[in-house]
Amino acid sequence: METPFIVALDFPTGEDVKAFLQSFPRESLFVKVGMELYYQEGPAIIHYLKEQGHRIFLDLKLHDIPNTVKRAMQGLARLGVDLVNVHAAGGTVMMEAALEGLEAGTPNGARRPYCIAVTQLTSTSEQMLRNELWIDRSMEETVLHYASLAKKSGLDGVVCSAKEVPLIRKHCGEAFLTVTPGIRFADDEKNDQVRVVTPYEAKKFGASFIVVGRSITRAENPIAAYERLQQEWKGEEKE
Ligand SMILES: O=c1ccn([C@@H]2O[C@H](COP(=O)(O)O)[C@@H](O)[C@H]2O)c(=O)[nH]1
Hints:
With 239 residues, the chain is of the alpha/beta class. Helices cover 42% and strands 15% of the residues. The chain has helices at residues 14-21, 35-41, 43-51, 66-77, 92-105, 126-131, 139-152, 165-172, 199-205, 214-217, 222-233, and strands spanning 5-8, 30-33, 55-62, 83-87, 114-118, 157-159, 177-180, 209-212. The radius of gyration is 17 Å and the shape is globular.
């Protein structure tokens, strides 16, 4: 899945996506389709993006009883996306069922989509963890525990903040994928994100992939923002 940059296509319609992608006429991107877009456009948007040569992270964060997740994953595997996910909070039996569904649904000769688990959303703070979710552990301990459950279930990696990557790498190994949203340039608004890092910091923490939405999609010049991302990843942080 070579490029480390995943562009979150958080748009309400396929037409908006097409208009946005016109800025990148010659680029084969790694894009993320989330709930906003998929719930409106369904499989058609996946077929369109595949035809255009883009790689796809279908970010639907499945979290349900094991049988439901297994059957849903069986259908998603047929779409031919590269990466899908679940919530680790669904537990190991649910995560194992997700993999079984993906394996059953992957067409002969194709590679099954990578499957990763959300540890804790990057919009969650340690205070929310304790006061709302009643998880009486630090953010790092909680994220590491959920990552360990994902690894034990056979998943390929996790969604986490880049801040937690060094700890996860140490315990789950270098091959375990860390896909990290909550990315902002130093001069950006955080919006609803809490555990935020810059692209430069994410690289230093060792993230496998960074997921970038509004910093590119809502930029005045998305191409310039994408190029800035590439520069920062190479180690050149803008002052
Ligand atoms: O913990 C998570 C899991 C998923 N996301 C998704 O990533 C993008 C981030 O968008 P920005 O505009 O760069 O904030 C968005 O699609 C989320 O659904 C996440 O942010 N955190």
